[in-house]
Design goal:
about 300 residues; alpha/beta; Spore Coat Polysaccharide Biosynthesis Protein SpsA, Chain A; 9 helices
Length: about 300
């Protein structure tokens, strides 16, 4: 690893829309990262996606190189992340959703893992995370697994890329931007393309982020995104077995979304079709390790 990366610059990208209170907590968790200034520097890029109330105006960027970029009109989370990537000058990119927080060791642990990997390779890092389940409102700790086979990225996006992803800047030149036409499931689409580009996902097996997902169902947006992804990736030339895996995942998401929206019959039928497309003994296609939940860090 060259001298230029002895104290690398990490570009942290936070898309934001009307979440001032949680955005303040998210930024505080970035500023609290262990090793900041000693092992690495941070460039913080907050992308305000045309919030009615401008975001981040009272934030302190002490200890960071920080800026707020505001869209003139709302374009969605994919476009906000793409704006952040286009502005980033760091050696590495790290994404954080504005309603989540990082544990203090998050970046230093990922940077240590990054130093063991090929500088020019197509790879990304994730971590374990502490998440509140929307159905039960209970917290649990989840540890994703490494993914190195392209087809396994089609099984789902359970590694929470919106908040735990860490990768070299050049990987976006290889994979391309997030699909701004997708109002939901943009992470799944991006990682499916990442897998086809030969990308490998490695996991730091520690709980290093706290995620409080939105309870918004957004049924129409999800169902539209599912159809868009099916058409897009089928046209990309997937083989029949990979198409079956992808459609099993998409049908699972359809069923879960319909159930959350109160359509029990439609949800049950979609879940049944998912299991017919890809028989399995567990609900999700993508494996993950569940640990007893520690006390929430919030």
């Amino acid at each position: 690893m060259g001298a230029a990366l002895e104290k690398p610059l990490i570009s942290v990208i936070i898309p934001a829309f009307e979440r001032q209170a949680t955005l303040t907590a998210a930024v505080a968790s970035v500023k609290a990262q262990e090793g900041l200034g000693d092992a690495f520097h941070i460039e913080l890029l907050i992308i305000d996606d045309a919030s009615p109330t401008p975001q981040g105006q009272d934030l302190s960027f002490e200890g960071l190189s920080g800026r707020i970029e505001r869209h003139d009109e709302n374009q969605g989370p994919s476009a906000a992340r793409n704006t952040g990537v286009s502005l980033a000058t760091g050696n590495y990119l790290a994404f954080l959703d504005s309603d989540d927080i990082w544990r203090p060791q998050k970046l230093i642990r990922q940077l240590a893992k990054a130093k063991t990997l090929d500088t020019d390779g197509v790879w990304a890092l994730a971590t374990g995370f502490h998440i509140k389940r929307s159905r039960t409102q209970q917290w649990e700790d989840l540890i994703p697994v490494d993914i190195t086979a392209p087809a396994d990225f089609l099984k789902g996006c359970r590694h929470s890329p919106g908040t735990t992803s860490f990768l070299p800047r050049h990987v976006f030149d290889v994979v391309g931007p997030f699909d701004a036409a997708l109002a939901r499931l943009e992470d799944y689409d991006w990682y499916a393309r990442f897998g086809r580009a030969g990308g490998k996902l490695f996991v730091v097996p520690e709980v290093l982020a706290d995620i409080d997902p939105s309870n918004s169902v957004a049924k129409d947006k999800v169902l539209r995104a599912l159809n868009q992804i099916d058409a897009k990736h089928t046209a990309a030339g997937l083989n029949p077995s990979d198409i079956a895996v992808m459609r099993a995942y998409l049908m699972f998401e359809r069923g879960a979304t319909l159930l959350r929206a109160g359509d029990r019959l439609g949800g049950a039928l979609a879940l049944a079709r998912s299991f017919l497309l890809h028989p399995r003994s567990r609900p999700h296609l993508a494996p993950i390790t569940t640990k007893p939940a520690a006390t929430a860090a919030r």
